[in-house]
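Changelog-adjacent note: as of this version, every example in the card shows the full chain rather than a window. The one below runs 204 residues end to end.
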Amino acid sequence: MTGPAVTGPFGLSAALAGREQAGLLRNRIATDGASGGRLKVAGRDYLNFSANDYLGLADHGAIKAAFNAGIERYGAGSGASPLVTGYSRAHQELEETLAEWLGVQAVLLFNCGFSANQAVLKALLGKEHLLWQDKLNHASLQEMGSQLPCKMKRFAHNDMVALERQLEPNRGLIVSEGVFSMDGDQGPWRELATLAAQSGNWLM
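Full-length structure tokens:
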């Protein structure tokens, strides 16, 4: 790939150099071994404060044994999406067990939080709705919000006064996080629940 779009002053090389100069260029670092409280990188040990394995289960012996047993019984891949032939008896039994445990009518499983966040927004919101999002919500929520037919409004991080100014009665969905993954602070859930109830909007 050559030409001005890549090599010229406004091309990819210039953009990458600019990011590097600003200290914004990121590179992947290969780690060895399982995810956990400690990491091994290039033969050295480090404390790991960045993983999302919050409960320390990624390298738990019982979990690994269950994975191995599952692979022996079901293979290493689903073979298709759940709506085709990728929905196994194991998936069904897990959903039913979780629904009973939580005391709810039904549970729907997703392979990751990114997919779940996007699916909920897409399922609930049409062009007649409004979506209000905290500006520091996860990228999965922001990305899907920008693709929906409804209008998305973003409010300053954890600013309930700003949110209340934007709200319209019975128009849609307020979305915030329980714990914001990048900053580690929490959403003001009592205030959010009050604003949602008073305005007749959903809260996620």
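Structural remarks: The radius of gyration is 22 Å.
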